[in-house]
Amino acid sequence: MSGMALGATLWALVGKYWLHRTVTGWTAIVVMMSVFASAQFLMLGILGEYVGRIYEQVKGRPLYVVRDVVNPAGAPGTLDGAPRRG
Hints:
86 residues; mainly alpha; two-stranded antiparallel sheet
């Protein structure tokens, strides 16, 4: 969106200063609207990232799941990770 705003700004400035084919005030309106629109989209993207990260944390799921635990050190029923003989 910022690229499009920059393109619209350049187009408006070319139309005003080199082609002299614009109505008074049109260039300023186009430039302001494109800059404000790109700023709004930037802020909307930042807000979306923030809400997405909050959503991932609220779910309370771990980042990964361990399928099997092999020879845990100090686990109940083991002596230094060695299985109990019985």
